[in-house]
Each structure stands twice: as C-alpha cells, then as structure tokens.
Amino acid sequence: MKAQFLIQLILIGLVINTYYVEGIFYLPGMFPKDFIKGEAVPLKVNKITSVHTQIPYKYYSLPVCQPGKIVDDGENLGEILLGDRIENSIYNISFFEEVDCKVLNYYDKDCDPWIDVDDLKVLNDRVKFQYKVHWLLDGLPVVQTGKSPIDTGYDLGVVGWESSGQYQKGKNYIYNHVNIKIHYHENTEAGTYRIVGFEIKPVSTAYDPDSWNRQTDQSMCPEIPEEVQTVTATDKQYILWTYGVTFVKSTVLWNKRWEPYLQSGEKSIHWISILNFLLIVFFLTVMVAMIMMKTLKADFRRYNSMDANEEAEETGWKMIHGDVFRPPQRPMLFSVLVGSGTQVFFMASVTLTFAVLGFLSPANIGGLATSLIVLFVLMAMFAGYFSTRVYLTVKGKNWRKNTLMTAFGFPGAIFGIFFIINMFLRGAKSSAAVPVGTFFAIIAMWFGISVPLVFFGSYFGSKKPIHEDPVRTNQIPRQIPDQVWYMNPYVSILMGGILPFGAAFIEIYFILSALWNDQFYYIFGFFFIVLIILVITSAEISIVMCYFQLCAEDYHWWWRSFLTPGSSALYIFCYTILFFTKLQITKSVSILLYFGYSLIMALGFFVVTGAIGYYSCHKFVRKIYSSIHIN
C-alpha cells in the first residue's frame, strides 16, 4: 500500500508540473512558438563535433564572424557534460523574407574576410577530421539536406579523396555558403506559423576578393563563381561567409516535428533480439521452476523423512547447513558493491520509467544526462540503506566505516575516471571540458547531498532488526570436497555471465552507435523491456548456479552469487573494444575518452547485475534452508 501511494504521489506531482499540449506532454518552457510574417527568427549556434575525434568544440572556436557580445543560453548539467554550448548568432532571418545570397555581416570591423595562417590551421584541421556544425532554430537541430537516415548537423567542409569533379585529392574544402531551408506549418485561423523543419545545404564557393567591397556592397553577395573554396595553411586567405534562406510549407504538425529525428529503421532487429531472449528467459524460468518444484520437493521429502540415526547419510546441499551462512571474505567490500548496485538500479529504473512515459523530451538538450546524474545523487539513500543491511546480515561490526566506504567507494571510482578524462579534455580545449564552477558544483552535490543521504539511509538500515539465519553456523568451517572442472569458480562465474550479456548486447550496440556516432537514442520502450529481461536473466542464472554449487557441497556462495551475473560486465567491456574497431577514432585523447566512458558503463553494469544476483540468491538460500528440519 505504501508503494502504491508513493507511485500515485509521484505521478500526481508530474502531472501538476507538466502541461498537455497537442497530444503529448511537454515540460514548462517547451511550448510551441507562433511566428508572424516579418518576425525575427533567432538562429542559435552550438558545438562542432566529429566521429573521428569525439572531441567537441565551441562553434566560435572557428575563425567565423561573431556577434559583438556572445550570449550563452543557460545550459543544464547534461549539456555541459556533453559539450553543448548554445550561443547567439548574427544570422539575420525574418519569417517569410527569403534571401538568395547575403554576406554574413562583414561590414562589422571585427569580421575580416582575410583569415591569418594560425586560424587557417585550425579550420583546416577541423575539415580534415570531418567536423559537423550543430545549429538550433526554435529548439530544432539542423540536418543536412539529402542525408539519409537523418543525421543532426551539417558538414563543415569536405576532404578530396579522389581527383574527380571539383574536389581534388589531397585538398580540403570549406563550406562557406549555406542554403537555409525552414519548413513551417501554417495555422490558418490564427494567421501564425510554427517551425517544423530545419535543413541546410552547404556549398563551397570561392569568392573573388576584388568582386566585393565592404563599404559599398555591405551585405549584398558578389557574383557567385563556379570555383570551390579550398583551405590552405600557408598564407592568409580570403573566405567570405554567405547564406541564403527559403521557406517551405509543410503538413507536419508541430508536435510531430521530432518524429523524423527519432525514427529507427532497425526496429525489427530490436524485436527479433527481444523475442529470442524472451525464449531464453522462458526456458531458464522452466529450469528454475523444475529445480524449485521437482528437485527441491524431492530433496525436502528425503531430508525431512530422515531421523537422527540417518544423519550421517546426508548428502547434497543439506550437508553444509552448518556453513552455508558463514560470512564471506571481505564483507565490507561485498556490502558496498551490493549497495552501489542497488543505487544504480533504482537510478536506471526511475529514469527509464519517466522516459517511457514521455517526460524526457528530446527538445530538452542534456535532459537525459541531467536526470541520470541527479537521480544517481538522490538514490544514494538506497545505497546507504541496503549496504548497511547487507553488512549487518554478514555479521559486520563497523557499519559506520561501511557507510563511509559506500559514500566514497563507487562514486569515487566514477569521479576519478571522470576527473582524468576532464583533464585531457581541458588540455584539448574542448567544449566538453567541465568549467571550474560546474566542477565544484558536482563536488558540492556529492559531498553536500549524496554523502548525507548515504548516512541517512544507513542510519535507518542499522535500526531495522536483521532476520535471523534459518540454521545455526558451526564454529569450525567444513572442508569443501574437490569440485568438477565446470564448478571451478572462474569457469562457473564466466559461464554465468554469458546470458545477462546476451540479453543486453543488442541494445548496447544501439546505445554505443547513438553515443559515438552523434545520433539520437530515444527508443526507451525497447530499453525498458531489455532491462526487465536482464533482471530476470541475472536472477535466474544466479539461482541455478547457486543450487548446483550447494549440491556440490561448496558453501562459498555469497561472492559467487554476485560475480556470476556480474561477470557479464567483462563481456560488455570486451564488446566495447570490438565496437571500437568499427569506429574511426584516431587521436589519443579520443581513445582515452572512449575507453574511460566504456569503463564507467561496465562498472555500472557490474554492480547492477551483481546486486540482482545476490538478492535473488540470498532469498533462494534462506527459503530452502528454512523448509527443512535440521537434526
């Protein structure tokens, strides 16, 4: 009842703080913008990115014309971590005022078309690594005309790979003219318009320096030549930045304008993989059911029918009843990992629930990353509570030290990896480098919110009585008999991790593709189903392997229950190495960035699946040993 009331309270609060607009929910500040003829349309510039370097930069790190005062939009934490820097531009666009060609405000004394060698080197380097430019118009990201599937951003330039046509091998060409196409939907009753599409067709144009005069021509373009604009880094070069604007009427409604960005042409692959693993889960469930209903019932009948004189003939898992609840080695590390896994699990579950319900709009750039970070901090209370409960369950004595380890252990490892990555990004002058103020804000969230919540949860966990073990533990540990090769801890743990990895690796492929190929990932329905399959698979494989282990009279099940599904993280990390070979990353900083974030993902997967395995196995062990009579 308490859980239902809490869920209802959360949903009511979300409804109160959201608004229903044209069929879907939008957070405050995400209302449609109605334009009228002649109204200015603010074009925002964002970062530039490359799949070859994975290092984003600010748009104004390029030698382009800048406004007299650069105004940053208020970025959230997710935007900052992703390298987004949304700023104003000097592109003069008015609704329904079409322009064939216009010079980008070069009558400003700070906008000199003659670019010096140092800036040309930067421009040449960005074109060489095939950087893309990201702009925003009414919150809608730009796409390049003619590209399929839809990919956000447009190419900064092009590299001549073959000596054919206009582009010659070994030369880099800059796209210095952009044809802006704005798709709009008309509200005939109100006489207003809404932007539903934003495309750009970039063009390389080599203007003659003598064909345009800043003082007399101002914004008017010179005659457009047929030559393309190369980029060299040997001498000053004349590059004139120009643009054109056209408006196209569209039947797409405003609330449907994001659909082309979010459509996945590979949904059949998702469904096939999900159906395959649903079958695997079904057979695994049948196996567990057979163990629980047939094999265990036979064991119960046999064990409970024995009298005191037959005790010497005991075999199987009953034989080790005096050792099965013996505390594991390194109980504090064990409890910290279980508590951290619980924290990550609740963070992922709540985020996915909100995402599936539609509360994470793609228009809110960085909203998903911000949600993950904030929820990770808030869920620290669960880490403290469950870590302390596990620690006291395994007969731990110093729960306060365990609380400190929980508060600083797993978050400290994540922060350490992030700190190293951030230092290298700062050295590369990337926009993804976290500013000093934001960096201290993250530390303040950790020490000011997360750590107190860990202690808060731990305090309540220590006050709640611990359930007594269903059987007594002997003072002298029993010798474990020799095991067959497939019950060797290393072999059984590695075998057990295959199924949880198999349940998730298809979805991980799409996540990695979206993350490192600069695409949108918003198919959360599939991800939610995969999470459910992952939970069931991790729990059942842990129970099955635990039963086999106990039947072999090996009572060291605590760590084995955690590591069996947790070993799937090793396969995940190996898979990221295989995926890396399909990328085109070249720079050492980019390689560090990739493997650093891959390691963070693998660590999160490790503690989550491990915690699921432990809790399911612990419940199973308590259940079977409380169902027999011990002589």
From TrEMBL:
The chain crosses the membrane at residues 269-292, 333-360, 372-392, 404-425, 437-460, 493-516, 522-550, 562-585, 591-615. It is a multi-pass membrane protein. Pfam families: EMP70. One of its GO terms (biological process) is protein localization to membrane. It is found in: Membrane. Its main location: membrane. GO terms for cellular component: cytoplasm; membrane. It comes from the Eukaryota. Keywords: Membrane, Signal, Transmembrane, Transmembrane helix. Belongs to the nonaspanin (TM9SF) (TC 9.A.2) family. This is Transmembrane 9 superfamily member.
